Amino acid sequence: MDVSRYLCLAADAGPAGLTRLARTIGVMLALGAASACAPTLSVTEFAELPREVAQQPILTVSGRAPVHDATLFGRERSEALSYGVHTVSIPPEREPGRIRYPRGTPDPMRHFTLAFAETLDGQDAFLGGLNRKLSQLDEEERILVVFVHGYNETFGSGLFRFAQMMHDFEIPGVPLYFAWPSAGDPRFYAYDLDSVFISRDGLADTLRLAARAQADRIMIIAHSMGSMLTLEALRDLSEAGESEVLARIGQVALMSPDLSVDVFRSQLATIGDASDIDFIVFTSTRDRALRASAVLRGQTDRLGSLRSVEEVADLRLTVVDVSGFNTADPLRHSTLTMSPELIALFAGTRDFGVEAPQQAGAVRGPLSLSVNVVRQATEIILAPAAAAAGAIEGTGARQ
After folding, report:
1. N or C: which end of the chain has fewer CB within 10 A?
2. Cα 307 to Cα 49: distance, rounded to the nearest angstrom
3. Domain residues for 281?
4. Over the stretch 274-329, which tens digit does the pLDDT of each residue have?
5. Residue 215 region by backbone torsions, left for phi larger than 0, else alpha for psi between -120 and 50, else beta
6. Order of strands, edge to edge, in the sheet holding 217-223?
């Protein structure tokens, strides 16, 4: 980001330009700080968890430098990847999408906790553990689900969010968390952006390792700035001619991607036809974090805040607009993962179930939708039924 150039442009526009920039930065930092409430993570190691408490084991690959006993990780970057298994406990009584962190003595009946952690000694041990977990699943569920977190995440906050997603959405398969070294601090956007580019090789190596596993296919879920990292790694794999790795990836879901449309186009042009990946982009025009990111770049929209599918109509992808939903997130940057209504809609579906239904009865929950097919792109607009009344009549496709 060329901050000096942007400040000059703002100055040319007069005091109002500088005031808008300062206000945008202030809002982003204040809201980011308010949402970054995850405490320092520690392994609780309960003697026994109550039977009502769900347990979500997650395989982890981290590009962060280890701290403490090498099972936990901080913000510093590491030259080598670390491998492990981390089990998150999930309390039984909670609203879908919400994570309650312990502030004192953790209570597994009320809080998300890190119940268990183990370091794995290198790629072979990691691959062996991955294959054992896959072998325990039915054939149709042997999916490897890779999660790449976004900006302003600690190792623990990203881990807990992934556990919440796997549990609430009932995603089948074996979860793999790629933890790149975000600072976990809203003030250090530039640090996180540098970490994205440093982490490209690590994620590409992780996907190479994942392609050796006995999974039927790989699904990648990326959030926010993690979308940039994901697409850069796929781009590198394509440039290296590793079509066998790319062929194992069935779907890439980009949630609120903090990515310019032009950069996205450039990345897809390089990835090209080397793969048959289905790209799904979840967007919201009400995303305040992406609005601030766009202003700082002198842009109108980011990929995750598109106001018109026409901007990507020549690309083969599906855009799912979730602007109509509210969440507890003040930034509205995690609408999909934190909205109980959206969780109710997608829970139990494969690949987030975004294939356009043929009839309204195929949609579950108190929702309405419209489907708009524009050249190669498919736009699916979701809205609560009450909000959509009078605006969307039934379900259909407009050619």
Report:
1. C
2. 46
3. 3-319
4. 568 999 999 999 999 999 999 988 888 999 999 999 999 999 999 999 999 988 88
5. beta
6. 113-120, 72-90, 54-67, 174-179, 143-148, 217-223, 249-255, 278-283, 318-321, 377-384, 367-374, 397-398
Report the domain count for the chain: 1
43 class by beta-carbon count within 10 Å (0-12 exposed, 13-18 middle, 19+ buried): middle
- Global pTM exceeds 0.85: yes
Structure tokens at 275: 């793969």
Where residue 36 sits, what CATH number does that domain have? 3.40.50
Residue 394 pLDDT class (50, 70, 90 cuts): very low
Strand partners, 281: 254, 319
CB–CB of 318/278 below 8 Å? yes
CB 381 within 8 A of CB 354: no
DSSP assignment of 54-91 equals EEEEEEEEEEEEEETTTTEEEEEEEEEEEEEEEEEEE-
DSSP class of 311: G
- In angstroms, rounded to a whole number, what is the distance separating the alpha carbons of residues 281 and 294? 17
Q: Is there a contact between 127 and 212 (Cβ–Cβ < 8 Å)?
A: yes
In a domain, 381, yes or no: no
Residue given tokens 């549990």 in the structure block: 167
- Residue 379 belongs to a domain: no
Distance, in Å, from the CA atom of 325 to the CA atom of 334, rounded to the nearest integer, reads 11
Alpha helices in 150-213, H assignment, sequence order = 155-168, 189-198, 200-211
Examine residue 340 and state whether it is found in any structural domain, yes or no.
no
